[in-house]
Write a structure and sequence with these properties.
By secondary structure, this protein is mainly alpha-helical. It has two domains: 38 residues, no CATH class; 105 residues, no CATH class. Helix content is 48%, strand content 5%. The chain has seven helices and two strands. It has a two-stranded antiparallel sheet. The radius of gyration is 19 Å and the shape is elongated.
Length: 152
Amino acid sequence: MTIRSLPLVLQDLITGFAWDTGCYASYLMAAVACEVNTWDIPEMFVKRYAWCWRDMRLHVSPLKVFDAQIPPSDWFREDLCYLMLQLLDFRRSSVKLHGSRARWMRRIKSDWTTIIPFSSFYLELMTDTRNWKRFGFDTAVSLHAVNKPPIF
């Protein structure tokens, strides 16, 4: 027996008890999470845990274990995106081809789906050490080499 085979009232009751949302909202959030898992986003940009103010505890990332309480804007590490933008040398034409540092920061802050173009931008720039400030490339590479990334 699946949850989809139950009447809508029971589906809402179950999802309301589990995630404090309705059936349709939970289904849409699950569909978004499945779609995001198909994107080619470096693992370092995905939060391992997300803080829930309602429960006052950490929840495992909805991209690993589904949780409809955590909105998609809290699934990614904006702090690492900002760090990578600070490490890039925006004086180079290949770096500023996709926009300025401030523009990237505004886009990341205002729309969580900007992680898609940012990921491809980041992976493209990882191919050339000249795109980075002094010690910037080494720092970016070392972030990939860390066995246990920080909790957030």
